[in-house]
Every structure is written in structure tokens, then in C-alpha cells.
Amino acid sequence: MYVIVGLGNPGTRYRNTYHNIGFMVADAVAKKCGLRFSGKECAALTAKGKTGGVPFVIAKPQTFMNLSGGSVKQLARKYCDDESELVVVYDDADLPVGRMRFREEGSAGTHNGMRSIVSELNTTSFKRLRIGIKTEELAAKEVDIVDLVLSKVDYADKAAIDKCVDEAAQAVLDLVAGTDVQRIEERINRRK
User: Fold this and answer.
1) Whether pLDDT at 192 is above 80
2) Neighbours of 116 (CB within 10 A)
3) CB within 10 Å: which end of the chain, N or C, has fewer?
4) Catalytic residue positions, numbered
């Protein structure tokens, strides 16, 4: 069974911040399927649904970003036959706002949440969808990365972020329903 994990930080203080884009995608998936996050298991808020007749679990770890790995490990053990059924969605400060990248595997890069997951799972063989948050200010080094990720999404970036969140949610649902991974990869990675 596919497990779709959106990364973020719990609590109202972090709502609508750049670092919570994974949570935003998880919420968008739930909304598209008419689901609510009604349970808490494996240290995560979860919702269960089906798309194209295929069951899946959406999860938002409640462990804070840098400790996401423990929750994801529990979820993967409980629901996945193997790591290929795990999809992690998260923000990426190396990609410009409005860009996304889908990969079937890869390194954790500089993202602490992903480092935690890779460390706990002891593998990089799981799908990930990265959504760019690199603003012009970050690119020009006018703002510190920590200050950016914990700040609310700027109005100037909101339309691009909202579009990415919607497209990411649809891509994840398409993947679960059986759309070929390569087609999803091409659609997301070539997106301008």
C-alpha cells in the first residue's frame, strides 16, 4: 500500500510556512479525495483513502521536521510491502519557487527531515517529490535559510506555491492509481 508522507512541523505557529509545503500537499491530497485526518498513529496524523480503486495512506508526522524519520519508519513498516511504496513530499531550498522534482530515489541533500528519514530507513530507495522554495532573497543571500523556511509563504510566492501544491497532489494520486512513474517524472521535472 502506498504511504504518502508530507513533511512539516506541527502546530499553528508553523502553518503556511515554506517548511510546511509537505503538509500542504498532504492536505490537498486529502481534500481531492474528500478525506479528513482523523487518526494519529506512528507519531503522525493519518487519513486513509482510495484512488482508482487503490488504497493509500496520507501522513503528516507530528515529530517536528528534523525527527521525521522515526514516524516514517513506523509508517513504512506498518503499511508498505517495501520502500518503493513510500512517497515523501517536502520543500527544497535548492530549487526555485515554482519548480518541482520527482525522483524514485536519491540522497537526502541538505534537508534535515530527509536526512532523518534516510538514517532511520537505512536506504535512499523511496520516491520523493521536492517543491522549490528558493526565493530571490535566498538566492541573493539576503535572508538566512532558517529564517526563510520558518517564515510564512510570501504573497509574491503564494500563487506559484499553490499551483505546485495542487500539481504535486495530483501527481501523487496519479502515481497511486497506477500512472507510469516515468510519465509522472517527465511531467513534473519538465514543468516550467
Assistant:
1) no
2) 24
3) C
4) 19
Q: Please check whether residue 25 is in contact with residue 131, taking contact to mean a CB–CB distance below 8 angstroms.
A: yes
Q: How far apart are CA 95 and CA 69, in angstroms?
A: 23
Nearest to 88, CA basis, from 134, 26, 33, 170: 26
Strand pairing class (86-96; 127-134): parallel
Q: Residue 35 has what pLDDT?
A: 97
- Reported as a single tens digit per residue, the pLDDT across 33-69 is 999 998 899 999 999 999 999 999 999 999 999 999 9
Q: In what order do the strands lie in the sheet with 127-134?
A: 39-41, 44-51, 54-61, 2-6, 86-96, 127-134, 100-103
Q: How far apart are CA 2 and CA 177, in angstroms?
A: 10
- The DSSP secondary structure of 24-44, one letter per residue, reads HHHHHHHHHTT----EEETTE
**How many angstroms separate the CA atoms of 63 and 113, rounded?**
10
Q: What is the pTM of this model?
A: 0.96
Amino acid at 77: R
With contact defined as beta carbons under 8 Å apart, do 155 and 29 qualify?
Answer: no
Return phi, psi of residue 134, to 5°: -75, 105
- Asked if residue 19 lies in contact with residue 110, where contact means CB atoms within 8 angstroms, the answer is no
φ, ψ of residue 110 to 5 degrees: the values are: -100, 5
83-109 per-position pLDDT tens digit: 999 999 999 999 999 999 999 998 888
